[in-house]
Structure formats: C-alpha cells, structure tokens
Amino acid sequence: MEPQHQKEQKIPESSRQKRSQTSPDTIPQGNAVETSPVFNLENFPALPTVFTKNDFEVLNKAAVSVEARVRHHKWEVKYEYKFPDCFKKLSISINGKTPGPTIVAQQGDTIIVEVKNSLMTENLAIHWHGIRQIRTPWADGTEGITQCPVVPGDTFVYKFVVDRPGTYLYHAHYGMQRQAGLQGMIKVLVPNGIVEPFSYDHDRNILLTDWYHKSTYEQAAGLSSLPFVWVEEPQSILIHGKGRFNCSAPSTDATLCNATHPQCTPFTMTVVPGNTYRLRIGSLTALAALSFEIEGHNMTVVEADGHYVEPFVVQNLFIYSGETYSVLIKADQDPTRNYWASTKVVSRNSATPNGLGIFNYYPNHPRRRPPTIPPVGPRWDEVAPRVAQSVAIKSHKDFIHTPPQTSDRVIVMLNTQNRVNGFMRWSVNNVSFNMPHTPYLIALKHNLLHTFEQTPPPDNYDHENYDIFNVAKNVNATTSNSIYRLKFNTTVDIILQNANTLNPNNSETHPWHLHGHDFWVLGYGNGKFNQSIDPKNYNLVNPIMKNTIPVHPYGWTALRFRADNPGVWAFHCHIESHFFMGMGVVFEEGIEKVGKLPTSIMGCGESKRFHRP
Ligand SMILES: O=C1O[C@H]([C@@H](O)CO)C(O)=C1O
C-alpha cells in the first residue's frame, strides 16, 4: 500500500496551504501534517484577503476524492503544560496537541496508529470509540479487557479497519487519563461516488469536553479513598480544546492563570453566508451532560454515532459523553454580525460556566464579539426535553437496519450508587466491576480462567422489592471481575434501569457505551421497567443504532444487539469517574473464533509467559 504522504501530493499545494488554515478536518492528516481546528490570533492574519465560496469547494472536493488506503499515523503521547482555559494544567497531549489530531479516513481504510508512550512514569491504552474492531478485538484499546497497558518508553501499534462511514472518537482507556486531554475525533468519509442522504457545502467537527484543574491522580485517589472525595463539577467546558476560566475569581491562584494566554483564545468557526455546514459534534466529557447551540440557528440532526437519522430540527442539541452527532446548520442569519456557540451543563446542578465560542460570519473578524448576551441554554433540571430528543432519534427511512423481532436473552441492569466496605462505588445488579490483572481476551483465549472470578454476574435484580425512587436501605454491593458470557450469534436485550443515588431525591443521567457493537435503541421509559408490558411498546420498525445511549433519571432504556463479534467487550458508563468506581460490565462472545492474539498486547499478569518482545 502506498504511504499516505505520497498520496497527499495529489492535492494541489495551494489548497493544502489554505486547508491547513481554514478547513482543518476535511483532509487526511499525516503525522507531520497537524492542523489547528480553530482560528487563533496567530493564524488569523494569514487568511486570504478574499475568501471565495470556490475556495471552500476546492477544499471539500479534495476531501472526498481520496481513495481507500492504509493511513499511517505516528503519535507521541506525553505530559505537557497547557492553558486550554487560561489555567496552567499538566495535560496529556498527542504530538503536542489536545484534543489530538482528527483521524480522517474513508470507509474501508486501514488505520495504523503507532503510539509511543512518552508519559515517563505512566501506562497507556487508547480506545477507538465506535469502531467495532471486527476481526481485530485486540485493537480495541481497553486496558485490562483487550490488552495489557503500554508501558512508558514502549511503542504500541494499533491496526484496524474503519468499516463504516460516520463520526467516531478516540480516547485513553486506562485509569482516568481521558480527562487529562488524551482524546480526539475520527471522521470516516463515504466511498467515492456514494451520496449521503443530505447535502452540505462544508464538513467541520467539534469535540466537546469538560476540564478539571485538579490532576487525574488527585481525583482518582479521592474517589478510591476513605473518606470519599468527589471530583466535583469541572472548572470549564471546552469547545474543541478552547475554554475560558475566570482568572480573577477570588480563589484562583493568579500565578497559574493567564487570561491573555494565546492557547485560550475563543473557539471560532468561520462560515460563508448562505452556505450549509455539516457539523460533527462529539462529546468526551469526563462527567458533564451538555446542551449545545448556535445562537439563532436551527440544527437539523442527520447522524448519530455513525448512523443516519430521520432528520429533525433542534435549537439545542443534548449530547452525552461518548456520543457523536452530525447536524446541518445553514448560515442564514444576518451576515453583518457574529453569533455565539454555547454549551451548557445539564442534568447536574453545576456552577460550571457555559462554554462559549464564536460562530463567525465571513468576512466579519472572527473575534468580533456578538452584539447579544450569550444564550443561557436550557434548565439543567428539566428532564422532559432530553427524553424527547432521545425518543426523536429514529433511523433514516432509507437506511433502516431492521432489528431481530425477538431476543434470546434479557439482562436487566439496575444502576446504583453503593458503598462497598465503606468505599463509594457504582454497581450493576449490586455488583461493582473490578478490572482483572490479566486482560480477559488473553485469559479466555489461553484458558487462564483462574485469573478472574467465574461466577457470572446476575441477569436481573430483586425487581419486586427494590425501590428505585428512594435511597436503598441496607444494600451493600460486592465487587467482582466476573463477566457475562454470551452465546455466539444470539440476540441480547439489555435494560438499563436507573434508580435513586445515595442522596435523597437524586437520580443521575448515565451514558452507557458498548464496545465492539452497535445496538438498536428499542425504547425509553419512566420508572421501573415492566417486563410484561414495556416490550410491547418497543420500536421494532425503525430504531436508531448507536454505541452510546443515556439512561435518564429514574428511567429505563432498552437496547438490543447481536452477539456476533468474536471478542471481549466492555459496556460501561462513559462518565469516567463512574466507570472508575465500578459502573461497567464485560461481555464475551465467540472467543473460540478469535484469531491468534498479537503478543504485543501481552506482558502483564499471567500473560507475561506469552509475551515475546
Ligand atoms: O459518583 C458520584 O458521587 C457524587 C455524589 O453522589 C457523592 O458525593 C456524585 O454526584 C456522583 O455522580
């Protein structure tokens, strides 16, 4: 296969140059080619003085004229001081950036990412979120589940095929490293000549994250200590790595905060009046559920987690950690001014200020402050509009994957906050997940069954007696590293059942993410799921397929998937602290069909004996 840099020569130099300043995410990036996703003060003067619609068209055409191929990336992961919200924070960067480079590919391409761990004293693993890893379960990047961690100084090679077009993510899957900044986006374009069920002039992407000033280590230690120390709300919300912390807030250490630092210039997206933009929005927040809006502009939702949606219009897009959406936005408002892009924490009573950016109508200056007060966004405690959006997401009528009409197994998963020996944990059916020392994929393939507990976790909870609306009485969960073993090629239903936390009158929103599969979203409901009534209302006609889904406060969410991808797959709450506190499970299916494991994933626990460097 031809190396990427040779292919890139085909793109005219003139558009390459413009592209790197203006349309960063439309073209595959090599290791050396790194582009900034936003305008900033340094590169603003370099914009062409006359920027025509044709410029954009050239860039866009170049993006889709590439052929299927191997895309090779070389990444170095290390700690660096960054000021994404003006506050100095030791962050994990990829090739100097956080968020890391957007991986841009075309359906069917093979992605190779050579990751060098330069964290010095810290292990590493990277998960390719939304990529199903068909025939490459060892490349899923989930430390403890599909691989041993990559130790400092080592280089690990991830190799996998991006088999479907759409918007995906990548991020650290080791401890709580994700929130230190090790995250980014993957954009998979349709093959040449394939037309999507909507049209647009330009394709952009935005990663939403929340940002903490405390180190992940302080946070992880607090979560696993007695007394428990909660991570609290994030200090900032970042729009593609850009935020703004109030450096003059009374408790702020002024020596660590620099309000004029060039890294914390606001996020800006420049648009040409009259044009339509496909905005791919992903969330990799550590904790926050978000609402995103562009002041005064409607957004038409067209894609969710890589699947085309029957289009619907929103003013605010609710997005949970681990989800991606594409929305279409037409720059059809008064072109003489700029508009706010705003993102707000919902579902938690958070004092975190809204993340703000500028939706810049060309040729206004990208930094010109919109003349209006930034939108305040929806109320944090109104659940109904969020449930309404969840329910509105249906498969596009021309792209329906009809689900199996029945299932072979139903697993009801009660989500609870518990204490275990005094420690604060989260559990499923009263079992709080612990990571094993030997990754399951290796343990199962090499018959090292003694390396984890063999009694499977329960398929249900005490449905009759458990009161989901109140703080559970005298319930003490256990911890376990046991897993669910699914019969290969069967259809499995999962009912996520939410409940009250340990705080009275409180139930949180949890975004659950399934590795290795997409699932059909069969339905949502309030209160306790009723096995004899609720399945009658499932959407078995046009459900959307997704890989991440919220379970709303005091509600339930029903999913269905086919256990047809040989491997070992995590299913967990995508709130980083909650998974860290045990809110997850693991599924095995078709382990006997998994090919020979690469020795590069081995080296820890009992897999040491198979490791050949
Ligand atoms: O896991 C959590 O702990 C806190 C709180 O319940 C205890 O301080 C919180 O809001 C969580 O989501």
Automatic annotation (TrEMBL):
Q: Which PROSITE patterns did the record assign?
A: MULTICOPPER_OXIDASE1, MULTICOPPER_OXIDASE2
Enzyme class of the recorded protein, top EC level:
oxidoreductase
- Which residues does the UniProt record annotate as the domain Plastocyanin-like? 77-189, 205-363, 459-590
Name of the featured protein: L-ascorbate oxidase
Keywords of this entry: Copper, Disulfide bond, Glycoprotein, Metal-binding, Oxidoreductase, Repeat, Secreted
The membrane-spanning stretches of this chain are none
Decide whether keyword rRNA-binding is in the record. no
Q: What SUPFAM superfamilies would the database entry show?
A: Cupredoxins (SSF49503)
Which portions of the chain have biased composition (kind: Basic and acidic residues)?
A: 1-16
Q: How does it assemble?
A: Dimer.
Protein family according to the UniProt entry: Belongs to the multicopper oxidase family.
Which residue stretches does the UniProt record annotate as biased composition, category Polar residues?
20-33
Tell me one GO molecular function of this protein: copper ion binding
The record's catalysed reaction(s) read: 4 L-ascorbate + O2 = 4 monodehydro-L-ascorbate radical + 2 H2O
GO CC annotation, single: extracellular region
Cell location:
Secreted
List the InterPro entries.
Answer: Cu-oxidase-like_N (IPR011707), Cu-oxidase_2nd (IPR001117), Cu-oxidase_C (IPR011706), Cu-oxidase_fam (IPR045087), Cu_oxidase_CS (IPR033138), Cu_oxidase_Cu_BS (IPR002355), Cupredoxin (IPR008972), CuRO_3_AAO (IPR034267)
Q: What is its EC number?
A: 1.10.3.3
Query: Which cofactors?
Result: Cu cation
According to the record, the residues making up region (Disordered) are 1-33
What organism is the protein native to?
Anisodus acutangulus
**Source organism's superkingdom?**
Eukaryota
Query: Is Secreted among this UniProt entry's keywords?
Result: yes
